[in-house]
Specification:
The protein is mainly alpha-helical. 52% of the residues lie in helices and 7% in strands. The protein has 18 helices and 6 strands. Strands 1-2-3 form a 3-stranded antiparallel beta sheet. Helix 9 runs antiparallel to helix 17 and helix 12 crosses helix 15. Bound molecules: acetyl coenzyme *A. Acetyl coenzyme *A binds next to helix 17.
Amino acid sequence: MDEFVTLTYRGKEVKLPLVTGSEGEKAIDISRLRAETGLITLDPGYANTGSCLSAITFMDGEKGILRYRGIPVEQLAEKASFKETAYLLINGRLPNRDELTQLSVRLNDHSLVHTDLKAFYQNFPRASHPMGILSSMVNAMKSFYPELDTLEEEINITVTRLLAKVRTMAAMSYKISRGHEIVLPRPDLTYCENFLNMMFDTPVTPYEIKREAVNALRVFWILHADHEQNCSTSSVRMVGSARVNLYTAISTGIAALWGPLHGGANQAVIEMLDNIHNNGGDCTKIIQRAKDKNDPFRLMGFGHRVYKTYDPRAKIMKKMCDNLLAAIQITDPLLDTAKELEEMTLKDPYFIDHNLYPNIDFYSGIILRAIGIPTNMFTVMFAIGRLPGWIAQWKESMDDPNWKISRPRQIYTGHQQYDYVPIHAR
Ligand code: ACO
């Protein structure tokens, strides 16, 4: 049965249809609102606005549920490969054996990057942030890789190129920032192994690929693979709605992800924990600062627009931290600081009342440190993981029969009309 909500405005009743999602969540369809009433809606930060219908990722922020194409993220983290997860997100179902083999072959074929791109890297100042470099380089890819004849072929190849090359480019930027020779991808290594090898192998110290590190990276990337309409994904969709090419749309997503309130939080968390640790390890002061309304400081790695309970990804990350550090027999004092900080906040009325729990970024940096990733590469690691999600969301928006260019409205609060005053009379 069709459901409606009724809005009464200046004596006129307007029936607005309700849309129901496959998990029962409901939205008021306001697409006729302005035509019928002259009104628009105002929702800063889009906290109550659904921007699209999507069949990719389901999350329930109250219950702490996250599923990709219907499969709980916990199951994928336990059993799937990152490649399978990418295929699932982009194609809507798990690949069979042949499809997975074909994907591996295609990713291997496209894993090299044009050697002329190297010159770009070398001309960035050495201190450049790798996220700025990555965003620029992904945008530059459009100039290096020619267009193909059919749109379908073009999209398939571009998707493969992005999944295969962004990983190579990220490792390349790290090697160049250290002044080291670039390590090329190898056909005998898996997606995760290849990345670690390109990052850490050197002619004088061959990299020993550790099973535990590969597994941690797999889980890290799967947990980051999609998260419905977050800031960077919405940016990809919005820029994509202008029918810009996929490389540029992804480059926009990378730029948005860089922000410390979004993906950049993983770097900010480690810097915060380091700061606490280096100043005697007392978390009290930083908690006080986070609660102080006159201080803009926020506890990094805490809080989420949608999750009002423990982020299910953070639960897996926390467990992974313990398991990984034990397996590779290292200790990290920042893990103790993180646990202490979490314990204190979970008892603190401010954090309880505001529903502030650790998010994915709170423990992920400890894992990345343990496998040797430098702090300024943390958000790049997030970006590689989020790539399949951005691609899937972009594809879905391109195929949407109700596609429109994204173009929000506003309520104007500036001057009303007045006349231009010549300079001598001002
Ligand atoms: N520390 C202290 N207080 C916080 C925090 C925090 N980390 N997060 C939110 N709050 C408080 C706000 O001060 C506000 O308090 P008030 O209502 O008393 O004024 C209330 O909680 C609601 O905060 P909003 O900013 O309205 O929440 P919003 O949903 O817009 O923001 C966000 C979500 C950006 C993630 C926020 O929680 C934050 O800044 N967290 C720290 C940065 C971070 O970890 N980002 C990563 C998010 S996950 C991701 O993007 C991958």
